[in-house]
Each structure stands twice: as C-alpha cells, then as structure tokens.
Specification:
Chain lengths: 134, 402
C-alpha cells in the first residue's frame, strides 16, 4: 500500500467513522475500560443493554471502536465472543479472508501498512477480555 | 554560512536523512560529531577498566573519567568535581535523591512539594517515598497567569517540608520557571531544593551557585550527548547525606564479613564498572556546549518558535497551549477535531518528526483538561524552511481531514 492508498482509506472509512462513531455515548451501569497507557487512548465500553462506548483516542482506535459497536449489535455473548475472536486473529495474522465485512478488512489492511495493531485492537481486546473473564 | 548552518553541519544524522525535519528535541536531541568521535575513539584506542588497573591504559581512562567530573563542575559553576555524580540520566538522578537521601529522613506528616508541571520522572519518585512514609505530596499549581509563583510556593512550604522539586523548563508546555526566586523562598526555611534541568542543560546557562539549589539533574541525551548518561549535582551541605541505590565493587572504603563502608558521594554512585565511554561522550557534549554561543542559540530557537506560533495563526483549527516561553523552543498544540496522534502520524508522512501524547505529564494534562497534545521542540540545527514545511504540512492535514 502506498501513501495515496492509505489516504484514500482514511478518507473513505477512518475519518468519517471517527467523526461520527456509532453508539458513542456515555451510559450508566457496567463499563469496561479500554486503555493504552503508552499513548493515553482511553475508552469505556458500556455493556448493560445495547453496547455503547465513549472516550478519546486517535481516529483509528475510535473508528475501530465504532465498527466494534456495529458488529456487536443484536448479538448474544457467544456470538460476540466468536466475532471478536475472529477479528483479533485476522488482525494479528494480517489476513482478512475470514472476514465478511469490507470495513473490517480495511482495518487489517491498515495494520499491515503501518503496524498500528494496538490502536485497532484497543476496544476489541478489552471487550474480549471482559467476555472471557466475566 | 550562518551560525545555524554551521551548527547543523556538525550533526551527521542530517547527512543520513537529508529529508528529515526533526522536531522532537525535547524527547532527545541528535548527537554532535565530536561526541560520536570521542566515544568511538575510546572503543578504538582507549578502552580499559577504571580505578583498578595499574597499567597505563587504565590510568589514562581513569584520569579522563575523573576529569569529566571537573569539566561538568565548571559547566555548572559547581565548587568541585566532588559535587558531580554520574547516573544513567535524570530519572536515575532523581531516584537517588528520593530513595538515597530523602526516604530515610521522611516521617509521617512531613511533606514534599512538587509542581504540577513535572515530568513523571520528577513526580513518581516523590509520590512513592511519600506513600511509603505516610508523608504528604503537595502540588504547586499554576497561577492565574499560567506561571509557577514564588509566593504560592511560600504558602505551601512549612516547617514539615523536607524537600521541594521543580523543573527549570517544562517538557510538555515549554514554560520556563523562575527557579532562582522559587529556590530563594525555600532557602528562607532551609528546605533543600532539587532542580530538574533536563530541558535546560543544553542551551540555558546554569549556575548552581547563583541559583542556590542543593540538587540538580540532567541527561546527556538531551544535550547532544549519549543516551545512558546523566548527572546528579549535590551541593556541599548534602553531599555526605546521599546514599547509593546500588552497591558493589569499585565504591567501597572497606569490606569485611560483617560491616562495610562506602566511599562518599559522588564515588558511591559508581558501583560496578561504570559507563566510561558514555561519560567521555558526555564530556565531549559539555565541551561542545561550552564553546557554543548560547545566547545566539537561544535566540535562534526563540525565532523558530515565534515563526511557528505566528505562522499557525492563519490556520483557525490550530489551538496552541499558550503556556510556553519562546526561548524554551517547545510548544504544545492541538488541531480541532483531529487527535494529536493523527497529527503526528500525518506529519510523519511528510518526514516531519513531532511528538504526540501526554509527554509523561499525566497530572498536568488532567489539570489542563487535555487528553493529549501534539508538541514541537526546536534546537540549534533546525531551520526556518523547516518551520515553513511544518506549517504547510499542517495546513494540508486540516484540508485533508475536512
Ligand atoms: C523535564 C524532564 N525531566 C526528566 C526527564 C527524564 O529524563 P531521562 O529519560 O533522560 O531520564 C525528561 C525526559 O523526557 C524531561 O523532559
């Protein structure tokens, strides 16, 4: 991927998604912290009822959190775990074949370009950890 | 050739990266050629262990190592090389004072004062010893005009204050603090003061006698020298009270099965085989700085800072954190609607290196209600054209992100 390509992906997906993130709202009740102490990106995921998230971070981590919210819509816990697990594996291995969402595949492509796995997986890992340990 | 071009020509990194616009000097500065040469020379023709050998090579290395203490003493206008301890950097220097001096003297209900502008390196060691001893960590906050005021400090210091620690220049904001007046308030009550000079040691003349501080720290790598080197200055009043964090060979007076005695500061910091090559590199950096026209250097850096802050006024989205002094060469800012990391990431694509994040100053950013900032920091080798490139890259970013 070259610079034009990455800018196109930002323009098409990351910037709009991060400017208007899905279900980006503070809620009462149980919350899961997604925090990267190295860079300071910090989100809370609210898990009572329909999942929401809120906080601050770079465009990539926010857009990725937004896509997580879309993926978790109307899912029960078993499905949610499965979906997150699949995406985390895809990002870590850098192969998007198993994914059936263009947006998620774009995140994998971006990770392959500049290695910002931590930004992409911040909210996903926090949610997975919550689901696996609750 | 202007001074700036001459200065720049002394830094080989720019020959290796002609496109690089390096504006992260508050994190670490680039290395000057004479430092690289001194360190290479040591490896090639001078390498030997110090303080132990009876042969020429070792004696020569020992002499050059010890001479460097005196060179640094002169650089700081300290009384003698015996006031100068070698460490790995500012962080270690501060830890030595917190744990090797203060901790054993700190009791429940005593207090330590630091400012809200401190780097974590000058915050966590104090927080840590206070917690252990049940002492209070008091925070000197910014006044209404965004400055640390000696009067406010005087109100915080009382008869239970055991130490005050404050930075000379804030790494996150570029604020230059009135250290001499701050110290004077503490002297009235006989409270020792530590000055974190990590950001000022390169271009700001430091005179520990005039300042009146008892402890002062800085790092070699922020003044054109090597990483892994640093200095702890301790004034005569406290020299015999600083104990080492690490013990071992090379710093003892006598050792027996049941009791041992250590050499006094500064030699008690040299347990094990010290970083001789690094110390000689640090000495070369001090030589470079001693010859540098610091007034001209600060003027240059202030001009670049001003060109930047004036230049970005035309970009409405850019909000400077207005708590900087131009002569620091450091400015923090944010771009409305764009996270600092994205700003730095975008500039990186134009080969412009700036910092984004919390700059190891989380309490400060909390106080200012900021999640993160982008920060540029200029040094002697930066050029006006680089500021132009920076500003046009920022304009491009703002247009792109719309
Ligand atoms: C003001 C200040 N103090 C202390 C430090 C710590 O220095 P070092 O990492 O060299 O120990 C820094 C480095 O960023 C700093 O800017």
């Amino acid at each position: 991927m070259n610079r034009e390509e990455i800018e196109r992906l930002y323009k098409e997906l990351i910037i709009p998604e991060s400017k208007a993130p899905y279900r980006f709202e503070k809620k009462d009740g149980t919350s899961v912290l997604a925090y990267n102490p190295v860079c300071g990106d910090k989100f809370k995921i609210f898990t009572d009822g329909e999942v929401h998230f809120h906080g601050h971070g770079c465009a990539l981590s926010k857009a990725s959190g937004s896509l997580l919210m879309k993926q978790l819509e109307q899912r029960h816990e078993g499905e949610a775990k499965e979906i997150i697990h699949q995406f985390v594996t895809a990002v870590k291995s850098g192969t998007a074949e198993s994914l059936n969402s263009d947006s998620l595949s774009t995140l994998v492509a971006l990770k392959n370009y500049d290695g910002r796995e931590d930004c992409i997986l911040l909210t996903w890992n926090a949610m997975l950890n919550y689901l696996e340990t609750k | 050739m202007g001074m700036n071009k001459i200065w720049r020509s002394r830094f080989p990194i720019f020959q290796h990266h002609p496109e690089l616009v390096y504006l992260d000097n508050a994190a670490t500065t680039q290395r000057v050629d004479s430092v690289i040469d001194a360190m290479q020379e040591f490896s090639i023709s001078e390498n030997a262990s110090i303080h132990r050998g009876i042969y020429n090579l070792s004696n020569a290395a020992t002499n050059r190592f010890e001479d460097t203490r005196h060179k640094i003493a002169k650089f700081l206008n300290a009384k003698s090389g015996e006031n100068i301890g070698f460490t790995k950097g500012s962080t270690e220097s501060i830890n030595v004072v917190a744990k090797g001096y203060l901790e054993s003297r700190l009791s429940k209900d005593d207090n330590v004062v630091v400012s809200i502008l401190e780097h974590h390196a000058n915050f966590l060691p104090w927080q840590d010893v206070c917690k252990k001893k049940g002492a209070e960590l008091r925070i000197l906050r910014l006044d209404g005009d965004g400055k640390l005021s000696p009067e406010s400090l005087a109100e915080l210091v009382d008869k239970r204050t055991r130490l005050v620690a404050v930075n000379h220049i804030s790494n996150a904001l570029g604020r230059i603090n009135p250290v001499t007046s701050l110290i004077a308030k503490c002297k009235k009550r006989n409270v020792p003061v530590l000055i974190d000079a990590a950001q000022s040691a390169a271009l700001h003349s430091i005179d520990v006698e005039k300042m009146g501080c008892d402890f002062l720290v800085f790092s070699g790598h922020k003044m054109f020298g090597p990483m892994g080197t640093g200095v702890l200055y301790v004034g005569d009043n406290y020299r015999e009270e600083v104990e080492p964090l690490v013990v071992g060979g090379g710093m003892i007076e006598s050792v027996s099965e049941s009791v041992s005695t250590y050499r006094p500061f500064p030699f008690n910091l040299d347990a094990g085989t010290p970083n001789v090559q690094g110390v000689l590199g640090l000495g070369a950096a001090v030589d470079f700085l001693t010859q540098l026209d610091k007034d001209a250097a600060r003027l240059h850096v202030a001009r670049l800072t001003s060109k930047f802050t004036q230049g970005v006024k035309s970009i409405a989205e850019i909000k400077l954190v207005p708590l900087f002094d131009e002569e620091s060469g450091i400015v923090s800012f944010n771009v409305n609607g764009i996270h600092a990391h994205d700003v730095a990431g975008f500039l990186n694509r134009d080969n412009i290196a700036i910092r984004a994040g919390m700059h190891c100053t989380q309490p400060l950013l909390d106080e200012l209600n900021l999640d993160a900032t982008a920060r540029v920091s200029f040094s002697i080798y930066n050029e006006e054209e680089e500021v132009d490139r920076l500003i046009s890259s920022l304009q491009k970013l703002v247009d792109f992100w719309k």
